[in-house]
Amino acid sequence: MSATADRAPEIRRIAVLGGGAWGSALALTAARAGREAIVWARDADIVAAIAEGRGNPTYLPGIAFDAKVAATTDLAFALADVDAALLVTPAQTTRAMGAAIAPLAQPGLPVVLCAKGIERDTGLLPTQVLAEAAPRCRAAILSGPSFAADVARGLPTAVTLAAEDGELADALALALASRQFRPYASTDPLGAQIGGALKNVLAIACGAVAGKGWGASALAALTARGFAELSRLGLTLGARPETLTGLSGLGDLVLTCSSVQSRNFAFGMALGEGRTVAELAATGKLAEGVHSAAVAVELAARHRVEMPIAAAVAQVLAGRIGVDDALEQLMARPLRRES
Questions:
Q1: Among 66-75, 191-200, 273-282, whose mean pLDDT is lowest?
Q2: C or N terminus of the chain, fewer CB within 10 Å?
Q3: How far is C-alpha 115 from the geometric centre of its chain's CA atoms?
């Protein structure tokens, strides 16, 4: 039975909307936690593989599923009689997916947004987009330091699960919790979203530093100063300090800015090694930070928050300057006291 809007749900059955690596890993997580999990995906081959117990060889090759997960290509079937849904499609598709969910979801259905970003055309965060596209749903955010392959393998992972309603956040965290996967409930979805979106942009900068071979000292400095930027904007927008220094802020930033498993870091590394944005775009594998960079800078400017690293990334992505020029620009900034 689905939740009503005035109480926290008892969550037994979960729909996972998205058949990529992260969606498949979260469906497996829900199943390990003792929930009924059903994946919705457009690709019939992925659906067949998951339903037959073969895992997801397309996006998680070599990882066998150790729990039963159902799968379907029928969105209405996936959402029938569920207690919660995890939306695990790219952040820029949130509006379209919300519109598709709206007529099918029971009123008050919790929808956990699992992608990190800012809507490019509007500057809205995912919860704000969902509120417009599917106003009868209850939004929550899952964010934090987590790679899909690690989660699918059952490696220890801790994340933030945030909703404005604390009882809902608690219920969702309990529904996904297991010995391998530990969600910490929060009532600060704004802070969780700011951390998740901005770390993608900053990871591109850190990847470029690694690709240029500028060393661990430069990488650590850029990560630290990037966190200062993330914190300034987050606090200005009303995020809580403990959220920004927690799993969905600093924790996610540290992970994403230090590993080639991160698509954003890998994208930046390719730029640092001499690839162009156009070349990388032609592969069809643009990282989410590419979409969020310019709008994040616009958001910061609107609130008079300085974000020089994010601004440099946006300029590089727009083709206005090269990676070397971006570093020179950052190093030439006036000296000031650390803050």
A1: 273-282
A2: C
A3: 3
Euclidean distance between CA atoms 47 and 55, whole angstroms: 9
- What are the tens digits of pLDDT across the range 247-295? 999 999 999 999 999 999 999 999 999 999 989 888 876 788 898 999 9
Q: Which of 116, 199, 212, 285 is catalytic?
A: 199
- pLDDT tens track for 256-266: 999 999 999 99
Beta strands 110-113 and 138-143 are parallel
User: Residue written as tokens 């929930």?
Assistant: 35
Dihedral sign for Cα atoms in the order 99, 100, 103, 108: negative
Q: pTM for the whole thing? A: 0.92
Active site residue 116: no
Q: What is the 3-state secondary structure (H, E, C) of 100-167?
A: HHCCCCCCCCEEEECCCCCCCCCCCCHHHHHHHHCCCCEEEEEECCCCHHHHHCCCCEEEEEECCCHH
The answer to whether the CB of 35 falls within 8 A of the CB of 15 is no
Strands (E), the chain: 13-17, 36-40, 70-72, 84-87, 110-113, 138-143, 157-162, 181-186
What percentage of the chain has pLDDT greater than the value 90?
Answer: 86
CA gap 259, 104 in Å, rounded = 39
**Tokens 């640092």 label which residue?**
272
Helix (H, G, I), strand (E, B) or coil at 67: coil
Angstrom distance (rounded) from CA 141 to CA 335: 38
CA–CA separation, 287 and 256 (whole Å):
12
Angle at 182 between CA 177 and CA 186, to 5 degrees: 95
Question: Any idea what DSSP says for residue 4?
Answer: P
Mean pLDDT of all residues in 46-53: 94
CB atoms within 10 A of CB 292: 30
Burial level of 11, CB count in 10 A (0-12/13-18/19+)? buried
